[in-house]
Specification:
The protein is an alpha/beta fold and about 240 residues long. About 40% of the residues lie in helices and about 15% in strands.
Amino acid sequence: MNKQESRTLEYLKGKNKILFLTTSNRWEKHEDYPKSTALAYKWALELGKDKVTVIDIPKLNIHPCEGNVSAKGGNNCGVKDAALPDKLKNPTGQLRCWASYNNNDDELYKVANCIFDSDTVVFFGSIRWGQANSFYQKLIERLCWLENRWTALKEENILKGKDAGFVFVGQNWNGENVVKTQKQVLKFYGFNTPEELFWNWQYTQDANDESLASYKKAITTFESVFNIVMNTFIYKFKRLYNYFK
């Protein structure tokens, strides 16, 4: 176990209700799973089901953000009129997102309710073309109402006291800067952002290394650094997915 991983797990052991949100993806017919997802489930197994819930964001139907924070009539994000009226999906009444309100098949409520119920939320994913992957970006944009409620609408910060983390895996470019940016984003949203929960693993610092051999070696190096055998993980994944839901 490397030092970053050890420090993070030690910190998480002091928490009671942890939510892991994995955001990277693979084509299902390849029977392959992202390295960051494998890392999330490894940690979930170590910390225990009584502490950890895992949600795989690519498996959910989450509509894109509608951009109501900067609409023609001004900022209309997170207002009380946007509260999802379905009591089963929005038991706290705190979910106020127009994209949820306007789309009956939207599943953001599954994420929002778990965030409300957690003391710590950790996002896992991949760095792609120097940025956080698209599933993460879609999710974080859909959570904009959490920030807008207390910054623009001057209501309570319903994330106050909750920790957030961002652990991403990349190949060769810009991971450190992505972590720095997303740490600031999550701080803007109202989370606590402890240092122990923010870092990335990147195989090489050579941004021009695009060889096929490099991408293959990254997998074996990742396995060695984090003590994960990906083939074994793939075999267990479907069982793990149901276990930590």
